[in-house]
Amino acid sequence: MRILVVDDTLISRQLLTHSLRPYGEVDVAVNGEEAVESFRMAWDEKAPYDCIFLDIMMPLMDGHEVLSDVRKWEQDKAVKNPVQIVMSTALGDRENVLNSFKEGCEFYLVKPLQVAKVEGIMAEMGFSKKD
């Protein structure tokens, strides 16, 4: 399993990486442009991500822009199994939550991040820890 963690805050990246490492390979992007590049590169390498944890407030491209770009790319390429996207952000207001689901995320996780919540979302997506 491949997971991409996208967050411009070091402590959030570290917490997510530590929490997700038992599930598989974890890559990190520190801004939206890097996230889109990593997503496309993974497809070029024929090893796409199974899951992306995506912050909203980031430099260069915010999480909403990344989410829209990823979903448009998947639609254009007629991807049969789209990547599962979890918005992991400090923004818990109704507008951001609703927009994220409209744009195609599967889950929305409000910071501060907690390992138990991350593990719960992974279980809901059907992902289990590797042996």
Automatic annotation (TrEMBL):
Q: Which Pfam families match?
A: Response_reg
Q: Which residues form the Response regulatory domain?
A: 2-126
Report keywords, A-Z.
Phosphoprotein
In-chain residues carrying the UniProt-annotated modification 4-aspartylphosphate: D55
SUPFAM superfamilies, alphabetically? CheY-like
**A GO term (biological process) for this protein?**
phosphorelay signal transduction system
Q: Which domain of life is it from?
A: Bacteria
Which Gene3D superfamilies does the entry link to?
A: 3.40.50.2300
SMART domains on file: REC
Q: Does the keyword Phosphoprotein apply?
A: yes
Name of the protein described by the UniProt record = Response regulatory domain-containing protein
Give the species this sequence originates from.
Candidatus Lambdaproteobacteria bacterium RIFOXYD2_FULL_50_16
The taxonomic lineage of its organism, from the top, reads: Bacteria, Pseudomonadati, Pseudomonadota, Candidatus Lambdaproteobacteria
